[in-house]
Amino acid sequence: MSSQITSIAVSALHPFAGNPFESSTADVAALAASIQDTGLIEPLIVRLKAGRYEIIAGHRRWAAATQLGMEEVPCLVGQYSDDQAVILLVTSNMTQRTSIPAGEYAVAVKMMMDACRHQGTNQSDATAGERANAWVAKQLNVSVARVKANVRTAELDPALLHLYAIGRMPLSAASALHDLSSDWQCQLAKFLTDRPTKLTYAVARQLVIAYKNRQLTQESMQDLLYPPAPPCKPTNDKAIRLSFDPKALRPFVDVTAAPEKIQQEILRLLKIALPDAALSDE
């Protein structure tokens, strides 16, 4: 593919359709400050599509340039197919950004996997014969298991994916929930939204097992998500230790007395205040 660097008007550039990566206000502001000091050194990577310049790599640089009021930015204009553009978009962000939100990461990995599969799983002669997930794992420097887990997570019901994105469950739990039907995924998302709780992998696996055994109901799902508290065990005659602030007790008892004397005085006062209660120090 041929490419060339040229200056392009900021207003003539457009973001990549379906770009899963968002640019935070803080990141853009920091990058704008850096560009103001040293200039925009690294060119954006763009392609001409349907008469418009579409950004493939450099969305944050474009946002920073816009914020600074720059009229033009250097761009590397190349000829990329849709699949090549997606792969370049994902790999450039994954390798250049130090932190990527979990939800964005999952969606990006799935986009890259889909593009790779669409190309027949082979990106070049050097990777001929590798499976798509193995190739993606190699490009992103992660395990094949992590690639698979992120793809499964990205395919969840949108509401459930959102809950994963905001930290309501780990990747292992989100990936496991992929085995639930879409209806049950929607029901689970509703439960977790109405009564917030953090879903663990263990509970996610229990939900999936119950579903596969056709034993999952709304009631069983609720019991797994919000197990009832164990009944309080009677204390019988076991001692109960209580702590009091001496300043709070001083108006009522002599806080310098022995603990047994303080207890007796507190019980005496309680019997006066609650004459009908079955209080006994026996």
Structure description:
- With 282 residues, the protein is of the alpha/beta class.
- The protein folds into four domains: 1-80, Conserved hypothetical protein from pyrococcus furiosus pfu- 392566-001, ParB domain, CATH 3.90.1530; 82-154, no CATH class; 156-225; 244-274, no CATH class.
- It contains 13 helices and five strands.
- It has helices at 25-38, 59-68, 82-96, 102-118, 132-140, 144-154, 158-165, 171-176, 182-194, 201-212, 218-225, 246-249, 259-273; strands at residues 3-9, 13-14, 44-49, 52-57, 72-78.
- A five-stranded mixed beta sheet has the order 1-5-3-4-2.
- Strand 3 (44-49) and strand 4 (52-57) form a beta hairpin.
- Helix 1 packs across helix 2 and helix 3 packs antiparallel against helix 4 (102-118).
- The longest helix has 17 residues, at 102-118.
- The chain starts with a strand and ends in a 9-residue tail after the last helix.
- Mean pLDDT is 87; it is low at 125-129 and 278-282.
Q: Helical stretch count?
A: 13
CATH class of the largest domain: Alpha Beta
| Helix/strand order, N-terminal first | EEHEEHEHHHHHHHHHHH
The CATH H-level superfamily of the largest domain is: Conserved hypothetical protein from pyrococcus furiosus pfu- 392566-001, ParB domain
Approximate strand percentage:
5-15%
Using the CA coordinates, give the radius of gyration. 31 Å
Number of domains: 4
Q: Say what the CATH topology of the largest domain is.
A: Conserved hypothetical protein from pyrococcus furiosus pfu- 392566-001, ParB domain
The CATH architecture of the largest domain can be named as Alpha-Beta Complex
* Class computed from helices, strands and strand pairing: alpha/beta
* Morphology: elongated
- Can you summarize the main beta sheet? 5 strands, mixed
Largest sheet strand order? 1-5-3-4-2
The average pLDDT is: 87
Distance between the termini: 92 Å
- Relative helix content: 40-55%
- The low-confidence parts are 125-129, 278-282
Secondary structure tally: strands: 5
